[in-house]
Give the backbone structure.
Amino acid sequence: MNKIWIITRRELASFFDSLTAYVMIILFLGLSGLFTWLVGSNVFLINQASMEVFFGIAFWSLFFFIPALTMKMIAEENRAGTIELLITKAVTDSQIVLGKFLACLLLVIIALLCTLPYYVTISRLGNIDDGGVIGGYFGLILLSGAYIAIGLFASSLTTNQIVAFLVALFISVFFHLLFDVIGSTMTGTIGGIFSYLSSRAHFESLSRGVIDSRDLVFFLSIIVLGLLMSQVMLSKRNWHS
């Protein structure tokens, strides 16, 4: 566990050293704040003390930000050959993957913590559903974890960051949008399966303050599968090298 935490701290520090963290947090806060307070169906337009608008914007913002965050995590290490340096320090492939996963997740959590003033302000406008707020933030963390795992897998497939970004987007868009569209056009068991594979359905369930085991199993399954596949691909590259 100590080695995982060392990798996590190293990767998290690299985000702030390269300004990646600052750019992501500023853009995330700018976009979410703009649409929450000023543009479109903002808080004042719907005339409700609710974080629903913010969660809707964050749902889409993280979909694009996370692949940009993860695209270099393994691809750049493979391209530069620095991944071998980690391996020579008796660090296992699983520890490398977990360390990078936690670093990305912690950065997303930091970005989400920066939005807590939104909650404080909106709660003063009226009676807010605290359960829905907690569930919404929890859902964003699980959603982010799933997309980070997918992004790490995409990054493990190539040495090109742009390719890793596009592959991560391609895989994520099925869970983010396409499965939901397909499920809504089909009926019966098949339609139910596609609907279950939609991250939107599970996220919206959590953002209502309902903690359902099916939602937890869905997101955790993607996280575990993504991390395992990342580890397998990393092991293959190391074996060939």
Observations:
- The mean pLDDT is 87.
- Residues 213-240 form the longest helix (28 residues).
- Residues 2-240 form one domain.
- The chain has 13 helices and no strands.
